[in-house]
Amino acid sequence: MALVYTTTHGSAFCGDSKQLLAALPDDNINLVITSPPFALQRQKEYGNVDQQEYIDWLMQFARLVHQKLRPDGSFVLDLGGAYMKGVPARSLYNFRVLIRLCDELGFFLAEDFYWFNPSKLPSPIEWVNKRKVRAKDSVNTIWWFGKTENPKANISRVLVPYSNRMKKLLADPEAFYTPKVRPSGHDIGSAFGKDNGGAIPSNLLQIPNTESSGQYTQACKAVGADVHPARFPSALPAFFIKFLTEPGDLVVDIFAGSNTTGSVAEEAGRRWMSFEERIDYVAASAFRFLCNEVTTQEAKGIHSRLVAGEVLKLDDYKKQPDLLAGILGIPL
Length: 332
Prior knowledge:
single chain, alpha/beta, ten-stranded mixed beta sheet, two-stranded antiparallel sheet, 12 helices, 32% helix, 19% strand, globular
């Protein structure tokens, strides 16, 4: 295991997450957010294990996460759905993960979230495209665990825009809305018409995963580096980082991949650490932090030096908001 690069707020490491987590102080991390390799039937290049072994494998990491979290810390775990082998029946592995983390490790389920990706392609092919006996699987389960019953959180930091109907109500509450008791028994009073700066989000997060030509992917193509095949959109970790942490808090991703979490935490002013076992993925993730003054040739050199084991301070490359855009022609 080794440090690969640093930024103003964080550090990226290459190595076994179990060893890296074990080296951290107990009761130290504010938020662990990660999307581990899923329990799929077919092996992927990023190293997933099969469903039979998956839960035991994941429990090793979760046990350490519980130990390293602060008492008010959170563990956010993104898990994709899967089918049982050879039949159109769903695997329950993601729900078994939920039960075991709570029953065996002492986590508390703060809330269950569901990530709806409207751009996801129809899958699994056998049951959706060929036999046409199932709808496409486009929702991931996201379990938000607390180390205790009441982890730190502030929903006001992730309010969403009001609907057009609510905007009309706020413009003239007396003309648009009459306080009353709903058939459900809920008493909706006049305070309902107060402008709080946005609406409370639901636990269904609709976030398309359509980024295919952004700064990271274009930079990888420009220097001939492999693009990580299972990236999640930055809006997903951004929601939980803003919701569950404050500036200066420590955010850790134990299966970092292309380090989307680290780049979001950097922009949000959170301290961060990323753990990824493949050095090629860690080296390429540095492109998320480089500035627009870095040429393609310089980017190739940076990537090669990182792969070779040299530790770089990326702040030396004057990080700018438009990262690499000017030189590599990357759309923002």
